Amino acid sequence: MSEKQIELWQQQLFAESGPFYHLHTAPLDRILFETDRERKQAVNLMGILSSDIEILAYQIMSNHLHEILRGEEDRCIAYYRSFFDRLKQYLSRHGRPGVLAKPDFALTPITSLKQFRDEVAYVLRNAFVVRTDVNPLSDPWSSGFLYYNPLLRFMPVRPVSGLTVRERRALTASMDGSIRDGLTVSGDCIFPGSFVNYRLVESPFPSARKFMFWLFKNVESQVEAALHLGEKPVLSDEELWTAVCGICRSEYFTDRPADLKDEQRVQLAVRLKNKYGASNAQLTRILRLPPKMVDALFPLSANLQR
Description:
alpha+beta, Alpha-Beta Plaits, 2 domains, 7 strands, 46% helix
């Protein structure tokens, strides 16, 4: 099949497979997940409570979370409310009452194949763009390790049907220990591969290479996804550099910002700040502008470093 035929087939597959939603919670002004134990419990609750919807991708951040879901809107809302209530109870019982006050979240419809690709990539990159120690393809608190991974079949897992009552209670953080059938366990956590439909996520990408491109190189799509969600774009230096070089080639007919005149670099700095949310420190590093000049241009950002 030609690339055009593959794209048309994927468009049809997307149209027939929905509805899809991006569930994202409002970032808290405090740490939500302080320990791996709390993050494991969040993963366990996703698996236990997602019987009426499908989870396609997720990312657990320190003060919020993202999930790509498939299912009817009312069921997606009911799923998250149950998740919120159970997590709130868990945190309260373990010495952290009041961390969660209300289920403040948004459910954004995903209405096109491009948006689906953009927002899956956005979710999987979320920790990667704000932390230097995260590999989005091996982050234990993301579904990123599931996609295009031939090693999954070697993962040691056990069916939940073989768990003891004590193990069930530990996983569910409840006395009844109720866990739906079909899930598996890896170590002391429900295995994400048993409740994340990662094969469905792979199908809209023609290949692993295309998936990697969308995840790491499609800078414009990352910006579009952030703005669509009402969030501020966050790009690494490398990604911002890629965008800068593209602008230089297309508009200034040079390969690098060092060849630009001072006034052109100032114009470019304003553009990068407004469109890509570049920090003052990034503008100084990438455009070789004096820090005092950048801080004078953007005084409200002068104390923010990324």
